[in-house]
Amino acid sequence: MTIKIFSQLNLSLRRPEFWAYSSWLDIVTRYRRTRLGLVWLLAPVAVFMLITGPLYARMFNRDLASYMIHLGMGYAVWRLMVMVLNDSVSAFRSNKSFIQDGNTRLTDYTLKSIAKSLFYFAFSMIGMLAVMIWSPAVSAPAILTLFISIPIVLINLFWVGYSLSILGARLPDLGEVLNTILMVGFLFTPIIWEGNRYPADSLGGVVVRLNPAFHMLEIVREPLFGRMPPQSSIAYVALLTLSGWLLAIFLCRRYSRYVPIWI
């Protein structure tokens, strides 16, 4: 018996016309009337790095070239995750007309949220690529590790986004709860600061290492510096992926049929 979420996901991936094209169209429409157009997609990560990078590198007594990679990649991946989560929690309600017209392949709407955020992330990577080439802390082969680490992040973002979409359809207040959690989560995620500032056996270290975003960033950033991610992070992400997909399978099987009624 084919698991429903996988059969729907397979059809969605084979027919990307809706979720991929509509995501790109939303972005193009938004920036079409601005003078700089799609160049604005580069701005958030670039401005964040240029303003906060030199300041905090001096504050933490870090080499600027390596710290800019730590800061820029951390912020870019965090922004990708936050955009997917914020968009997913209202994905079904935002596409109410399509669902009620009969397009009940719910994976389309999760992929639409991911695709839109991924377009923003891809543009931000243009600036990051320039910084990585400039920085002696990152070698050319190390950049290729992003083709492994970023898909791992996306695989996890799918089950999170799908689960949030179903829960958000049933619980309208979930979006506000999520915004609060993400606002606090930024403070406990090593984007500006570094996770090794807190030893693993300290209270701060335990709190930081309970944060899933910490381990996602470790998986992405450590290989860029030519280091293997900690085994604890690899194990954490593997367990998170498995348990998360089991949750998504359960929610799909148990509650997906109620989504048209809830919205």
Automatic annotation (TrEMBL):
Belongs to the ABC-2 integral membrane protein family. This is Uncharacterized protein. The lineage of its organism: Bacteria, Pseudomonadati, Pseudomonadota, Gammaproteobacteria, Lysobacterales. Keywords: Membrane, Transmembrane, Transmembrane helix, Transport. It comes from Stenotrophomonas daejeonensis. It comes from the Bacteria. The chain crosses the membrane at residues 38-58, 118-137, 143-162, 174-193, 233-252. GO terms for biological process: lipopolysaccharide transport.
